[in-house]
Amino acid sequence: MRSRLRYFIVVLMATAFLSSCSELAPPADELSPSIPRTATGEPSLDGIWQALTEANWDVRPHAAGPALLPELGTFSAIRPGLGIVEGGEIPYQAWAAEKQQENFANRLELDPEGKCFLPGVPRATYMPYPLQILQTSQYVMVAYQFANAVRTIHMEDPGPSPSESWMGWSVGRWEGDTLVVDVSSHNDQTWFDRAGNFHSDALHVVERYTLMSPDHLLYEATIDDPNVFTESWNISLPLYRRVEENVELMEFKCVEFVEEKLYGHLRKDPSDDVEVNVVGVDPD
Amino acid sequence: MRHQLVALFFVFFVSAGLLISTVTVGQVSSTTEAAYMPPRTPEGQPDLQGIWSNAVLTPLERPDQFADQAFLTEEEAVAYEAQRNDETFRGTRDLDAATDVAYAYNDFWWDQGSTIASTRRTSLVIDPPDGRIPPLTAEGEKRRNARDEYRRLHPADGPEDRLLRERCIVWSGGGDLGAGPPMLPSAYNNNFQLVQTADHILILKEMIHETRVIPLDGRPHLPGSVRQWLGNSRGHWEGDTLVVETRNFTHKTHFQSTSEHMRLTERFTRLADDVLMYEFTVEDPVMLTRPWTAQIPTMKLDGLIYEYACHEANRGMVGLLGGARAEERAAREAANE
Amino acid sequence: MRILLIVLSAHIMFFTSIQLRAHHSFVAEFDPTQPIQLRGILTEVELINPHSWFHIDVTGPDGLVVSWAVEAGTPNTLFRKGITRDTLPVGVEILVDGYRAKDGTNTASGRDITFPDGREVYLEGSAPPAQDATSIP
């Protein structure tokens, strides 16, 4: 009698254990360990993040390719990418598809990234440089390493934008656990990537930032531009937290690196063997 | 009993008198004597956030006429402000052409504020007590003179010969003498935005969108082998004051003739809802004979910071270099005649 | 007497300090010996930094239209005064009083940008036109 009771208890405990085990393997759509939240309950996006994709080469799926100048060898060769464009294709109008080809052919001269120009949105998000988010109830600030670019995402209505700008006019709101940012008033000077994918000043971007785990952030954006595309299109990519100890955004003020490219022809002596100003090294 | 009461009253009035007499002239507060308690962030820190303007008409250094005078009286301050605000570039200017060109455009475009510092000091420099930046060391003089001589001989051979602000690298408000940090007032867009989280402070200065994200967690500075235009900043709280220490500057910013050895300490204290006291100390044992400190009571701006992209449309650089080449060509042609 | 001294010294100090504060040295870009006055139709305003640009079409006595680019101040100052891309008087005739660029292009500094009746563009109030200027056809 006692042994049967003991047996029964063992079975009961085993069942309990097994059923709790099944709870350790969560259903596929459930989030992994809980994400950090602010005092007011929103997910906290604070931190330093970086994309790992090759989208800055070309947001569409693409194969590897050579660098722009043969003497560079593999330095700056095109890395292959699976693409971040949903469906793989950008729905260009006919004239715009041709213009993109032209941009690509002339990208050494035309790509604003090469001139250290502010990268615009969404390109700034997936360039191979870290970005840092600081989140408060009134503002979500995004500081980018590249060219010391920065955006203020207004969480309270800032009124209309007075004019177009490189990084656009950003107004944000929370939809559940997703930060939705409406970006308007872009100028027509930025590109989406190094492949010459471009837009006009009618560009309108809606971004969505969703924390998928404490260390990865899903970035999605819907791109709209009636002057250039036949319909809107979407991109999607993960951003990963830079988890090194004491990580910080180091400076990449690149103007000094491109002055020769932009103004070399105006030098007093164009054949001047000018060393690019490098400030990073301790002169001592 | 009555004697005790009298004694008590006596003690009270004497103490009150002593207390009031310790409130010195020039106390930097736009509020009454009651200590201001700044609002707190959700993390419990003093809330320094907002968009602040350091547009004050007070000059950096004390002018000769005020040699021994650290503060203006209320009457003097009113007169001085009125005179400064009355000045305008509109209409006929009684200036030589070169100066007229240098002033670029008329008063409409300038935005230097309409008030002097609320402290009524005669200069932003508060230490040394004479309100002037201290002299350079012999090494400091040598470097500055070498730089000035080079500029004289090579004003525009290439972009590297021009001021950092003309190159759109770092904004400088005072000719070759200023390149922030620290943040000095200038001709326009004298604004910065401060955003804080539990372990970082972000300072976005409007001019050339200079953004510093400063950790507050006590980590060490980057090694001295790494130099940056904006240096490398670390922050911590001292009571209700945010203290930011910056080093690792380059040898090219030479803020007020300092060098790569410059160390900057900035202090931010909220004195009222609309006043953020900004104080900074500059040290450079190689170039300066002693450190100096300046103070700017910054005011809450009723407005936003707008993007100041600079390098992206720096047509002035093209015009400036092209103009120099045109003048050289003209001189060569004249010589050949 | 004290106040007079203060006024004078402040005057001197002000002019000394202001010289160093513009974005870049206009003296390096524009020619003090070539003051100019332009009268034309405002075709476009670029509200960009570090300088906004006013583009005007100037019609000469021969009927030829020449486009000029006029360099002005930071648009951020305009934004703070409530002026935006939607409030610009494009298509209107304006006067520009400034100096020619040294590099020989059709570029000028915009010392004063006014309507022909002397009103500051965007503002009420009078501003007498500049003197000793060369009119360009």
Please provide a written account of the structure.
The complex is a heterotrimer of chains A (284), B (337) and C (137). Chain A has 284 residues and is α+β, with helices and mostly antiparallel strands. Chain A has a domain at 47-241. Chain A has helices at 2-24, 94-105, 107-110, 123-126, 255-263; strands spanning 47-51, 131-135, 139-144, 150-154, 169-175, 178-184, 204-213, 216-224, 233-241. Chain A has a 9-stranded mixed β-barrel with strand order 1-2-3-4-5-6-7-8-9. With 337 residues, chain B is an alpha+beta fold. Chain B has a domain at 128-316. Chain C has helices at 2-18, 26-29, 75-80, and strands spanning 30-46, 53-59, 65-71, 93-101, 107-109, 112-114, 134-135. Chain C has a single domain (26-135), classed as OB fold (Dihydrolipoamide Acetyltransferase, E2P). Chain C is globular, with a radius of gyration of 17 Å. Chains in contact: A-B, A-C, B-C. At the B-C interface, helix 2, helix 3 and helix 5 of B face helix 1, helix 2, strand 1, helix 3 and strand 4 of C.
- What percent of the residues of chain B sit in helical stretches (DSSP H or I)? 10-25%
Q: What is the residue-mean pLDDT of chain C, rounded to a whole number?
A: 74
Number of helices of chain B: 5
**SS content category of chain C:** alpha/beta
State the order of secondary-structure elements of chain B, H for helix, E for strand: HEHHEHEEEEEEEEH
Helix content of chain C: 10-25%
Biggest interface pair, residues each?
B-C, 69 and 65 residues
Q: What would the average pLDDT of chain B be, to the nearest integer?
A: 85
Helix-strand string of chain C: HHEEEHEEEE
Q: Outline the biggest β-sheet of chain C.
A: 7 strands, mixed
The helix count of chain C comes to: 3
Give the C-level CATH assignment of chain C: Mainly Beta
What CATH architecture label of chain C applies? Beta Barrel
Question: Which properties best describe this structure?
Answer:
heterotrimer; A: 284 residues; alpha+beta; 9-stranded mixed beta barrel; 5 helices; 9 strands; 22% strand; elongated; C: 137 residues; alpha/beta; OB fold (Dihydrolipoamide Acetyltransferase, E2P); 7-stranded mixed beta sheet; 20% helix; 35% strand
Summarize the SSE layout with pairings.
The complex is a heterotrimer of chains A (about 280), B (about 325) and C (about 140).
Chain A lengths: L1 H23 L22 E5 L42 H12 L1 H4 L12 H4 L4 E5 L3 E6 L5 E5 L14 E7 L2 E7 L19 E10 L2 E9 L8 E9 L13 H9 L21
Parallel strand pairs in A: 4-5
Antiparallel strand pairs in A: 1-2, 1-9, 2-3, 3-4, 5-6, 6-7, 7-8, 8-9
Chain B lengths: L1 H20 L28 E4 L20 H13 L10 H6 L22 E3 L10 H16 L37 E6 L3 E6 L4 E6 L16 E7 L2 E7 L15 E10 L2 E9 L8 E9 L14 H22 L1
Antiparallel strand pairs in B: 1-3, 1-10, 2-10, 3-4, 4-5, 6-7, 7-8, 8-9, 9-10
Chain C lengths: L1 H17 L7 H4 E17 L6 E7 L5 E7 L3 H6 L12 E9 L5 E3 L2 E3 L19 E2 L2
Parallel strand pairs in C: 1-7, 3-5
Antiparallel strand pairs in C: 1-2, 1-4, 2-3, 4-6
